[in-house]
Design a protein that fits this description.
2 copies of one chain form a homodimer. By secondary structure, chain A is of the alpha+beta class. Chain A has 3 domains: about 60 residues, Winged helix-like DNA-binding domain superfamily/Winged helix DNA-binding domain (Arc Repressor Mutant, subunit A); about 60 residues, Winged helix-like DNA-binding domain superfamily/Winged helix DNA-binding domain (Arc Repressor Mutant, subunit A); about 80 residues, SH3 type barrels (Roll), CATH 2.30.30. Helix content of chain A is about 40%, strand content about 15%. Chain A contains 8 helices and 8 strands, in the order αααββαααββαβββαβ. In chain A, a hairpin with a 5-residue loop joins β6 and β7. In chain A, α4 crosses α5. The longest helix of chain A has 25 residues. Chain A is globular, with a radius of gyration of 19 Å. Chains A and B meet through α5 and α6 of A and α4, α5 and α6 of B. The structure holds a DNA duplex (30 and 30 nucleotides).
Chain lengths: ~220, ~220
Amino acid sequence: MHSYTEENYLKAVFNLSAIKGEANVNELSRLLEIKMPTVNSMMKRLAEKGLIVYESYKPVRLTAKGEKAAALIIRKHRLTEMFLVEKMDFGWDEVHDIAEQIEHVQSPDFFAKMDELLGFPKLDPHGSPIPDKNGKMEWTEYHKLNECKPGDTVVFKAVIHSSDDFLKFLNARQLRLGTVIKVKSVESFDGTMTVEYSKRAPEMLSQLVCDRILVAPKKK
Amino acid sequence: MHSYTEENYLKAVFNLSAIKGEANVNELSRLLEIKMPTVNSMMKRLAEKGLIVYESYKPVRLTAKGEKAAALIIRKHRLTEMFLVEKMDFGWDEVHDIAEQIEHVQSPDFFAKMDELLGFPKLDPHGSPIPDKNGKMEWTEYHKLNECKPGDTVVFKAVIHSSDDFLKFLNARQLRLGTVIKVKSVESFDGTMTVEYSKRAPEMLSQLVCDRILVAPKKK
DNA sequence: ATAATAAGTTAGATTGCTCTAACAAAAATA
DNA sequence: TATTTTTGTTAGAGCAATCTAACTTATTAT
């Protein structure tokens, strides 16, 4: 239906929109590593196809149709990541690039089978929600580790902006989803946190790191 | 390294060459459903890249380099088919189109993992050999069911030119790899064979069918 | 051997996706 | 507010992969 290329643009718009509800050409250009004029003309194409709303000099937004199309690609991506981790023994830091390719496979049966073999998972290996077959997706209300105060005890629920490097960083510190983290102190100057988890010596995490870790209060 | 498109041409040349050692533009054109002039110009491109030998008005041949490149794509295709059948419960008649897409995935790790999880298989679900990591492949010396004589007892070893339709035809008759087939009679007029297998009533198979079934003598 | 048919080639156009260079609008800064 | 910087757009070119139309060579049939 849509080309490999169009799918990638759509996904990029979706990912950028996730934060602000809209995406601008400049950021898309950086994200996709494609020059602005190229992105610009593709935006017009996507607009003609009714996938996004485009107005000159304004950020673009996904239409309902575009949102659904994008979510269904994300669905394939996240199901694939889950499959690679759960059924093929890959690490959560090894699956992104492979999923990036397999997400473009056209075969409803293939992804339906993955879904079934995985027991219809709701989350991917990084804690992100997997959109359903209709492209519906909901984020559980997590908050950033950053926002926690000394004394808080929370559970590591998801990673945002998860690059392979960042995931390897977490691996090296045995930080994984489900880990219970106790916030010992927060350096007010630069936001560095001292935390404790898994019966190890306290660990210091920079603000940059804490900004990418999503947590939920530990249930009693 | 090579584009998606180039990979498909290479594979087509490989498949056609399997029989005659060379491939002509006309047949490639039919096989790929791409018009002759397009095929022609792509042949020149592949020749420039040192993947095939091209001379005007002559059939093309793969170079050693081209042969290896093609075999490595076939390897990915057949490993994928095997994975889909063995690890994902697909039927042998459902895997071709999916494998056709996944064979283009660039990730040595992904296919190495498949290979490992499958226990380093030598054959795909249709009995075709899986080329090794160096692109080396060898066909065991099977012969066609067509060539058998009344009284022969043989084992079904592989399917050639296996379209999904043909595989469904075999499914409907419970003919699968490993089935022991007894040749009862051969109609000299049109080559139709009457065969017996799996304690069922004798079955009649047309010459067209018998030409696509590879067998080996049953060992005592 | 000649004519007819099939196969292969050349030329030129089209579409998708990319680029650079130049220009215009919007936002930030002085 | 005026200037500078950033962001966005237009114009025009290039390459990969495709096509159709016209032509040439090879093969087959008469």
